[in-house]
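Design review, sub-item: ligand-bound model
Attendees: FS, YL, KQ
YL presented the inputs for the magnesium ion complex:
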Amino acid sequence: MKKLRILALMHVDLVPPKDVTGFDLTTVSWRTEYDVVETLTALGHQVFPVGVHNDLGVIRDAIETLKPHIAFNLLEEFAGQPTYDQNVVSYLELLGLPYTGCNPRGMMLARDKGWTKKILSFHRIHVPDFLVVPIGRIVKRPKRLTFPLIVKSITEEASLGISQASIVEDDEKLQERVKFIHHSDSVGTSALVERYIEGRELYVGLLGNTRLQILPIWELLLENMPEDAKKIATARVKWSDKYQKKYRIRSQEAKRLSPELQQKIRNIAKRVYRHLALSGYARIDLRLDEKDQNKVFVLEANPNCQLALGEDLADSAERAGLPYKHLLQRILSLGLRFHAERVQR
Ligand SMILES: Nc1ncnc2c1ncn2[C@@H]1O[C@H](COP(=O)(O)OP(=O)(O)O)[C@@H](O)[C@H]1O
Ligand SMILES: [Mg+2]
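KQ shared the predicted structure:
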């Protein structure tokens, strides 16, 4: 492939230092940024990391002076606002610069878990029955929505605000937890109340714009968690190395799925991707309902999902014969192609 000038857009606090001696590169907060920049550089591209907080001028200046072919988008927020991530991509579109990952329309639909579920329900894809409680409203639980329920943020990711207390068994605890999502400093968004699906947790990575490659089905293994704990991906499960080691929490290619069920899951993942207008790469989170003949429920879609080396997308790509550097190269090609096709239209 042609060697490219790449603007690597990342949060200003996550720009990797020039000299990384003395850092444990498996645990630093800028792991993804480091993996991407290093790998793209090793592929022969010229990579320019640009730290962004709340100033679009930084991006505009970098484009004017560096004349990049493409932006590699690692931003997950703008000015501390996760819901503004799509606006930065819109800005790149307006400036005519190709970018990696998802387009702003797809990002917007997937960002709001309520909208995601409304769209998927229309297409008859199973999602847990749910209720949205905007900030300032109290919960009026409809009779059909029976306990146990899980309460989460409508827009936050990375299991922010998700702990064992997120699963509630009665109306009092439900009100309490909704209040927490509405008013805690760490979350502070509208709340989503969902039927709690007990069962296996699966992830499916996809790559593509129009033609899609579906990566092998991945599973988060939570079976060694304490007896009394609900088996869900809380913030601690996702981010604490110590906790993961203690309870042997890991993910791997999903075993013991019949070929029919695998086909069904792949098909659902593909339909979710298309119905939400995603592009580039994404990971779809699903659950198998062990109480209902392993019916497949979609929890959410994650455009521009976690891209660090050793995380689920990279691991499942590797399993599909796409090592990390080829994965990143593919993501670049998809970004360039998406732009070229857009311009032609
Ligand atoms: N309806 C549900 N039933 C069972 N577990 C759920 C449900 N919704 C969320 N979870 C658990 O909480 C985790 C985080 O929820 P998710 O909707 O994927 O939000 P995030 O964007 O933070 O990843 C999931 O990976 C899953 O373990
Ligand atoms: Mg998730």
